[in-house]
Amino acid sequence: MSKRRKAAAKAKADKAKRRQASRHSSWLRRWPYLAVGGVAAVFIAALFLISGGGSTAAVYPDGYEPPTLGSPDAPVEMVLWEDFQCPFCGRFERETLPLLVRRYGDTGQVRFVWRNFENYGGESRDAAIAAYCAGEQGQFWEFKDTLFREQRGINQGAFSENNLRRFAEEAGLETTAFNACLDGRSYESVIVADKQLGRGEFSVAGTPTFFINGLRVGGAQPIDTFVGIIENALTRAGQ
Are 143 and 132 in contact (CB under 8 A)? Predict the structure, then answer.
């Protein structure tokens, strides 16, 4: 081989080595970022699954039925998705719901269904458990009303365990059974299932959210809004 060809071959080989070295160096520079990104992706996915975001399947305890108020044969069903610390829920519960119950619930036209959508953490969850425990003694709706009257900010102690026990005693509940239920926290699975059901099947994102015969109504609307929707639903039902 001539000297010129040998020199050309050597130059080509050197160029290939430099290109390979450059690719290797680039990979080494990018590797830590890729690794961190991969770990972050796995971590986010794990959080998503742990929080229930990876599944919309709601699993309730055997035999569980949500609390209802009104005739089971009512032509209109109004589902309430609420949180016990939600201030707008509190306003609706104190100002609007009692009027709707008197006008439509007591007359057998509307059945009200409660679904818990825990939005604010600790005290919201404790209050919900307490309400379900009161429900074991037939006083879910009465205890719910007490809780909404007692709202005092979010996670500020209004629904401490001591207060919840006091509310039960003042309501005339059998306190030994109530306290055992509260301590057992068996209704946490219901709270989780309700939130999964709300997020999944019904796309609930915040509270309060209502469904009147399937029609979504968001927020604590003026009573005329609810009356109009209910009257239309009654008309469609032939009432």
Answer: no
